[in-house]
Specification:
Radius of gyration: 19 Å
Number of helices: 12
Order of helices and strands: HHHHHHHHHHHH
Number of strands: 0
Helix content: over 70%
Oligomer: single chain
Shape: globular
Strand content: under 5%
Length: 305
Amino acid sequence: MTSLVLIFQIFICLSLGYFVAPHLSQTLKQFVFKILPYFSYILLVSVAFELTQALNHIQNPATILPPALLIAFTTSIGSFFICLLTYKLIDRQSIQGKISSHLFLNALKNIAKAFLALGVGILFGVLIKISGIQIAFNSWYLLLIFIFLIGVELAFTQFDRSWLSWKILMVPVAAFIGSGLASILNYILLSNNYNFNEVMALAQGYGWYSMSGILFTELHSAKLGGIALLTDLFREIFAILLMYCLGWRFPRSAISSAGATSMDVTLAMVKQSCGTHYVPHAMMSGLILSLLAPLLISLFLNLKF
């Protein structure tokens, strides 16, 4: 599926949930609000499971794990701090969330649950490998169900015109700049094995591993496709950890680190850690980066420098 088809499906499910919500019975509404918090952990289990499955199908994973981890870590951290610096300069009052002992304890509980969910997913993937069972797992439809439920909740959320402010655009812009600056450092460390345009292209997946892995394989090589797949899987996991650890304190920066995933997988974590009022930031940032990701990857791979 192309990026436009995937984005179209997301907005169809979101819109469907939004317009269906007023017609739901009170019992169904309560059920939706009750199960929504658990979806983030279900998605975490699926991400960890897909990571183990990806490692099983990649030749010589030991050779591509180091660059994938390096690029994922530096681009996630780069996006976070560039966004933090940007908002500190243009809107100092918006860079920090509310602080309370209750919120801090909830954040610690969420972090613990997130690690538990990741551990369950990895354990499940290892057990499946040992047993020799073949499972064709695709979490996309699980994501679409979650997006539908988010649409239902958004129907009962009050928004105003401030969500259309240009300041929201600083979140994806910071992700782009932070990833680009991180690529310069990455190239210095990886220049013996990779060209600058390849390193830059690997930084443009923004966590969208289902797209980047395929695109790199088609446009370049299976090896770079494997690195792209693992890079964006790790980037998604780093974003989730940043979301739970610091999202309550620096919501926009955490959303920026999430990249394209803030529109789907990590949207649950945005709602849980940053608050429902930051969902529009996540949707807009995820949409823009999802549209840019395949274009930027193609652009940098076709450049020779």
